[in-house]
């Protein structure tokens, strides 16, 4: 083996000192045992790579709690944790708060130390442990709201459960903090994130829904044929009954859009039951000691003006001792509304939830008590029709030849909100040569009165602008060789015209000397036959000009 290796090194040395052969053409011969050793060493080097690190260092695989309240005089709480350390270092994991007294520990040598305001379990690198803690149950507390049997903080875990051992009616057992339970209320699933868990036992009378006293503020708005109502509902309990449920109804044809918890609270859950009389809204909150509930209900009602009257369904709380309703009405489009019973009241301070954007002077205010609907009378207001379109600028260029023929070019900028019509009537004897809308050739329609109609398209904005162009000819008498008068007329349109600019081009051998008509001269050219005319603010009128002219060479 040594001889072969020496020979190989000697050959490599010769090549490096000046051998003319290409090194890529060289060959190497090794015994199989030597090659296998090289491969094994290379594989071992690859196996020395650092394994990937887990995304977490310590993992609470499961947390299982058992509350035994078969004897209400001696309620017990036990917690069993399965914990795994995935790292190569010591780790700690939080199990219980300091306020939860520990009665027993299994195994006794488990490394449970006070840390971070609680008791933490210490784990050696790559270790796993199962720990069972006997905890002090919550002191038995009795009130008209129920009897507290257990109150603890569950830790986050991959699997978290609660087993409840009791001999009570399941309907009287309320567990807050759980996400699911069986019918007997003996097995509960807890959220993986952990959280507060309470077990309460209620007396039969405490499981009956409370009688609420309700206060509802309605903001009613016209949203184009549909009323949108925002209702802030506040419920106050009047007895020791259950405050986690309420039933709200609306008269048909109201339809509920959304329900949201208002202010503090653990969140409201809602479900809608549709009936022939209207929707019934079932509200449910977490079981707690709250005696006040607040929700925001959004619903819609079609506006149906029958005999100039309509009704706004108001929120009603089933079984409430009293329901006070305040109604705020924004202005209705094109309708004047007044209550059929009572009168509008002075408007005071608006509720904060309505926002600062509400203009007080446009609101009407009324209060009602124990009423299912607000009855209103409606008087449609007369509506003045505005112009569908107006001409912002109209520019005309007219060229006159000595034989009396005229060629007219028109360019108009028309402002309109929706699709509209541009109607125009050519002067007597006029002939249209071409027309366009926004540069695109378009043939006009012929009206019964002989006028022409161009349909203007609807734009994307609230005030669209369309450019209309057309060319037409007209015929007049032959111009006098010395002096004379020529009468000119432009098309008439019923649209309002803000400004007209009229450029009149005479033959080069003539010049204008005077003007009559309903237009004025803006500027003239003393050396040529160009006259600029204008007219401001007119409609349904044909611009007319009677122009006096003379031959230019008569002054020489």
UniProtKB/TrEMBL annotation:
Keywords: Signal
Signal peptide limits: 1-18
Protein name (database record): DUF4403 family protein
Organism this protein belongs to: Thalassobacterium sedimentorum
Organism placement in taxonomy: Bacteria, Pseudomonadati, Verrucomicrobiota, Opitutia, Puniceicoccales
């Amino acid at each position: 083996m040594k001889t072969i290796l020496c020979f190989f090194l000697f050959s490599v040395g010769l090549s490096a000192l000046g051998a003319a052969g290409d090194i890529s053409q060289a060959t190497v011969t090794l015994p199989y045992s030597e090659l296998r050793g090289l491969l094994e060493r290379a594989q071992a080097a690859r196996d020395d790579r650092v394994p990937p690190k887990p995304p977490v260092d310590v993992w609470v695989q499961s947390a299982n709690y058992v509350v035994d309240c078969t004897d209400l005089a001696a309620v017990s709480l036990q917690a069993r944790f399965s914990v795994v350390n995935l790292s190569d270092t010591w780790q700690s994991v939080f199990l219980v708060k300091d306020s939860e007294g520990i009665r027993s520990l299994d195994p006794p040598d488990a490394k449970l130390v006070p840390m971070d305001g609680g008791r933490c379990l210490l784990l050696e690198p790559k270790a796993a442990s199962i720990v069972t803690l006997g905890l002090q149950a919550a002191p038995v507390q009795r009130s008209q709201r129920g009897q507290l049997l257990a109150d603890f903080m569950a830790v986050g875990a991959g699997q978290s459960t609660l087993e409840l051992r009791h001999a009570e009616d399941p309907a009287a057992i309320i567990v807050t903090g759980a996400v699911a339970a069986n019918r007997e209320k003996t097995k509960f699933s807890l959220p993986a994130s952990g959280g507060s868990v309470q077990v309460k036992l209620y007396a039969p009378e405490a499981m009956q829904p409370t009688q609420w006293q309700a206060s509802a503020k309605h903001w009613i708005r016209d949203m184009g044929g549909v009323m949108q109502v925002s209702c802030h509902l506040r419920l106050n309990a009047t007895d020791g009954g259950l405050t986690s449920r309420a039933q709200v109804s609306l008269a048909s044809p109201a339809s509920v859009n959304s329900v949201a918890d208002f202010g503090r609270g653990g969140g409201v859950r809602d479900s809608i039951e549709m009936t022939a009389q209207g929707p019934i809204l079932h509200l449910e909150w977490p079981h707690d000691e709250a005696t006040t509930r607040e929700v925001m209900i959004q619903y819609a009602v079609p506006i149906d003006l029958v005999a100039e009257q309509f009704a706004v369904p108001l929120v009603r709380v089933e079984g409430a001792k009293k329901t006070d309703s305040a109604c705020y009405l924004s202005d209705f489009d094109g309708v004047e509304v007044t209550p059929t019973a009572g009168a509008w009241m002075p408007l005071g301070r608006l509720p904060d939830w309505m926002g600062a954007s509400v203009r007080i002077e446009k609101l009407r205010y009324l209060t009602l008590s124990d009423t299912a609907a607000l009855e209103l009378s409606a008087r449609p207001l007369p509506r003045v029709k505005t112009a569908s379109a107006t001409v912002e600028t109209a520019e005309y260029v007219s060229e006159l030849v000595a034989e009396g023929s005229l060629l007219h070019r028109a360019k108009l900028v028309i402002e309109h909100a929706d699709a509209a019509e541009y109607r125009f009537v050519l002067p007597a004897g006029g002939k249209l040569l071409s027309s366009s809308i926004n540069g695109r050739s378009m043939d006009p329609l012929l009206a019964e009165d002989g006028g022409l109609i161009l349909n203007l398209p609807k734009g994307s904005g609230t005030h669209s602008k369309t450019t209309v162009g057309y060319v037409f000819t007209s015929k007049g008498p032959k111009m006098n060789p010395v002096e004379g008068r020529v009468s000119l007329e432009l098309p008439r349109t019923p649209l309002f015209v803000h400004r007209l600019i009229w450029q009149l081009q005479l033959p080069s051998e003539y010049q204008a000397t005077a003007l009559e008509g309903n237009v004025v001269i803006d500027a003239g050219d003393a050396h040529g036959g160009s006259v600029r005319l204008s007219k401001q603010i007119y409609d349904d009128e044909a611009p007319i000009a009677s122009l006096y002219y003379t031959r230019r060479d008569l002054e020489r």
